[in-house]
Design goal:
The complex is a heterodimer of chains A (283) and B (279).
Chain A: H1 13-16, H2 21-47, H3 51-58, H4 61-94, H5 100-106, H6 109-112, H7 115-125, H8 133-136, H9 147-172, H10 175-183, H11 188-217, H12 220-225, H13 236-245, H14 249-282
Helix pairs in contact in A: 2-14, 4-9, 4-11, 7-9, 9-11, 10-11, 11-14, 13-14
Chain B: H1 13-43, H2 47-54, H3 57-89, H4 96-108, H5 111-122, H6 129-134, H7 143-153, H8 156-169, H9 172-179, H10 184-213, H11 216-222, H12 232-241, H13 245-273
Helix pairs in contact in B: 1-13, 2-13, 3-7, 3-8, 3-10, 5-7, 5-11, 7-11, 8-10, 9-10, 10-13, 12-13
The chains are: A mainly alpha (283), B mainly alpha (279).
Chain lengths: 283, 279
């Protein structure tokens, strides 16, 4: 068969790009108004103070401690969810048990439940009189209104990411490779560490990075479960919010810029991880 | 000689059971017990106090405002998302990857920082502040600012869900429709839209859930005045901080219901079509 001839001029590929020019106008205009202008306003406000002053405000003791609480807690919780998320994904893909569909659906709850509700109920459940907090109180462990509370809120909101990135990879993974390793005499431990885990690693790390990114920016649930005390459990988002409440726009803009730059860095890392994962999948 | 081992697919049943127990235990600690607590707290004094809490004027205003916000933001982001998805999925051009990452950007920016950006643009000392003041238009601490903040945080959903679907269906059907004489609009309504409807539904669903539930960005730009610029999530936090736990939980049940509807519709679509939403 010969190649189909374009019937009308609208068919030629050169023309295609210019169909619906207003679609392009809407896309570009919306992104400019919604994203580019606000980001430019933040960066220009932060830049207007000069590098010396910027550095001084960005590295104030209260800001440094807020970064530490935010980033260290977010990283630890993302890693915990990396371990449990992989385990849950494994159980959901490989095993069958009653209620499996329910547990699978419930994993998405943190995406659907507003963060204020999450913060409220976590603060109650993990307070000294709460269902879980009551069991820990006799041991002298306080969770709500401490840094542990921040960690619980971050665990909640970053839980789905690892599960949802690992699940599709596990589903597609052929069981015969494992069986081959097994029949060649590998122990279950060796099979897990050398055969199952390596192809899952890009997906796990992508999920951890996505969860970390989400936890770093989280505000609603943390502000409710934390006591927001500087140097103890004050996170960076709350510090920005408090600066704004005190009309200290300069400090808010500077700390906000630091957070924006960190987010961009994580986004870049996630893109690298996803590219790595795709290369893995193609092999 | 090695004894015959069971194959890995029939590994030890106790390990099986242990892993399932750990998985369910973790989900219970982090998700299920807190979710059950919302319902328990709202109703543990009976239905009458619960209903009374729902009839407070500040609460009713917060419900109305939350719905009004979603009613404005969801269509806005839907139109943008469809335009952006079509532009990206149907064209190859320099800067395409950059455009894609730009659309994803709101997910990685902290909502508080998003609100701060809007204050720096539209606030009294912001870029357009004096100009808006001269025209007597209030954006920050009023409804337009809350719309902007909500639209910002829920911007990526529709485009993210529709782009993969558009790429998968390809252009053959659209081109066939055009050969048969359909114009652009007819092609969109009769061919493209029916093909992308599930992806679009996902996107709209997630946009709506985020729009109704957004806290940080709206808290920054709204001023959080009860009965005036207070949405349901802000109402919850305000009631909780004022030790009015019962009305906080009454409102939490309403938002929890929204989450439940979102999850159920998502599950139905997933069973019907087999597609999973993009993260």
């Amino acid at each position: 068969m010969s190649a189909p001839q374009p019937i009308s001029p609208t068919f030629s590929p050169q023309k295609r790009r210019w169909q619906f020019p207003w679609v392009w106008k809407i896309t570009v205009f919306y992104l400019l108004v919604m994203l580019a202008v606000p980001i430019a306003a933040l960066l220009s406000r932060a830049a207007s103070v000069g590098p010396g002053h910027f550095w001084q405000v960005a590295t104030r003791a209260i800001a440094l401690s807020a970064y530490e609480v935010t980033f260290v807690t977010a990283l630890i919780t993302a890693l915990i969810n990396g371990v449990f998320g992989t385990l849950i994904a494994w159980v959901l893909v490989r095993y069958s048990f009653p209620g499996k569909r329910f547990f699978d659906a419930v994993v998405d709850l943190p995406f659907a439940l507003p963060t204020a509700v999450a913060g409220l109920t976590l603060a109650t459940v993990y307070s000294e009189n709460g269902w879980i907090g009551r069991l820990l109180a006799p041991w002298g462990i306080k969770i709500a209104f401490t840094r542990w509370g921040v960690a619980v809120a971050m665990l909640f909101i970053s839980l789905p990411f690892v599960i949802r990135t690992v699940q599709p990879v596990l589903t597609e993974m052929e069981k015969d490779v494992e069986e081959a390793a097994w029949s060649l005499g590998a122990t279950p431990g060796q099979t897990f560490w050398r055969v199952i885990l390596p192809p899952l690693m890009p997906a796990i790390l992508t999920g951890v990075a996505l969860g970390f990114s989400r936890a770093v920016g989280e505000f609603g649930s943390v502000v409710i479960i934390s006591s927001n005390t500087p140097f103890r459990d004050l996170i960076a988002s709350v510090l920005v919010f408090q600066s704004l409440e005190q009309y200290d726009y300069e400090a808010a803009a500077i700390i906000g810029t630091v957070m924006l730059l960190v987010s961009l860095g994580i986004l870049f890392l996630i893109n690298l991880l996803q590219a790595w994962g795709q290369r893995y999948a193609q092999r | 000689m090695r004894s015959v081992k069971s194959s890995p697919t029939q590994e030890k049943p106790w390990l099986h059971a242990l892993l399932i127990v750990i998985a369910i235990g973790y989900l219970a600690l982090v998700l299920l017990i807190p979710a059950a607590n919302v319902i328990f707290q709202a109703f543990h004094k009976g239905v009458v106090p619960f209903v009374q809490n729902l009839l407070e004027p500040d609460f009713l205003h917060a419900v109305w405002l939350t719905f009004a916000l979603a009613l404005v933001v969801v269509p806005l982001n839907m139109v943008f998302g469809l335009c952006a998805a079509w532009a990206i999925a149907r064209h190859r051009f320099p800067g395409r990857t950059l455009l894609l990452s730009m659309i994803d950007l709101p997910f990685s920016i902290s909502p508080v920082v998003a609100g701060l950006m809007l204050v720096l643009v539209y606030g009294r000392n912001g870029w357009f502040g004096s100009w808006l003041h001269a025209l007597d238009i209030r954006v920050i601490f009023s409804f337009p600012g809350m719309v902007l903040a909500t639209a910002f945080v829920s911007l990526p959903f529709v485009a993210r869900e529709v782009i993969p679907v558009l790429e998968e269906i390809g252009t053959e059907q659209e081109e066939a429709a055009k050969t048969l004489g359909a114009n652009e609009w007819q092609t969109f309504w009769r061919v493209t839209l029916p093909n992308i409807r599930w992806g679009l539904l996902y996107g709209v669903l997630l946009t709506n859930a985020r729009a109704m539930g957004e806290f940080g960005a709206v808290a920054v730009v709204s001023g959080n005045v009860a009965g005036l610029t207070q949405t349901l999530p802000l109402f919850i936090e305000d009631a909780y901080k004022n030790y009015n736990t019962e009305s906080a939980y009454a409102a939490a049940v309403i938002l929890g219901l929204l989450a439940l509807v979102t999850l159920v519709v998502k599950e139905i679509v997933e069973r019907k079509t087999g597609i999973k939403p993009k993260l």
